[in-house]
Amino acid sequence: MSIALDPLDRKILAELQKDASQSLDDIARTVGASKTPVWNRIRKMREAGLIRGQTTLVDAEMLGLEACFFVLIRTSEHDQSWQDAFLKTLLERPEVMEAHRLAGDIDYILKVRVTNAKAYDTFYQALISEVKIFNVTALLSMEEIKSTTILPV
């Protein structure tokens, strides 16, 4: 479900996505509006659920999480109890940065951040000990070419 946004709302969202730590004064100045209307629009977008939160982006490699794997999962299980166990397992694993259920030959894709291949194997062994999986293919990212959290507004 999308909500109606006017050009000022879009400018505000663009600024918040670039750097949410900006002061309200700076955002208002950049979008060409006064502080109170900008604050009211931000508040309304939060209340509507469009702005879901605020976070800090951290450099994974500087934390020693140098390996990024994309894990393709095929399963022969599709019942609710398997899905519940799989979801629980994913939510408990901090290495899983993203998880998507897919249409097509692959059922799920995970983005997993770990220190190295040995750490990935530890993750893999834990995953398959928790849930039955038909096939797992791990693809190591050799280079991150683009990564952004900024949505086109």
From TrEMBL:
Top-rank taxon, per record: Bacteria
GO biological process entries: regulation of DNA-templated transcription; response to amino acid
Record carries keyword Transferase: no
An example Gene Ontology molecular-function term: sequence-specific DNA binding
InterPro entries: ArsR-like_HTH, AsnC-type_HTH_dom, Dimeric_a/b-barrel, Tscrpt_reg_AsnC-like, Tscrpt_reg_AsnC/Lrp_C, WH-like_DNA-bd_sf, WH_DNA-bd_sf
Pfam families listed in its UniProt record: AsnC_trans_reg, HTH_24
Cellular component terms (Gene Ontology): cytosol
Keyword terms, alphabetized: DNA-binding, Transcription, Transcription regulation
PROSITE patterns registered for this protein in UniProt: HTH_ASNC_2
Every HTH asnC-type domain range: 5-66
Ranges annotated as spanning the membrane: none
Gene3D superfamilies: 3.30.70.920, Winged helix-like DNA-binding domain superfamily/Winged helix DNA-binding domain
SUPFAM superfamilies named among the record's database cross-references: Dimeric alpha+beta barrel, Winged helix' DNA-binding domain
Protein name, UniProt field: ArsR family transcriptional regulator
Organism listed in the record: Neptunicoccus cionae
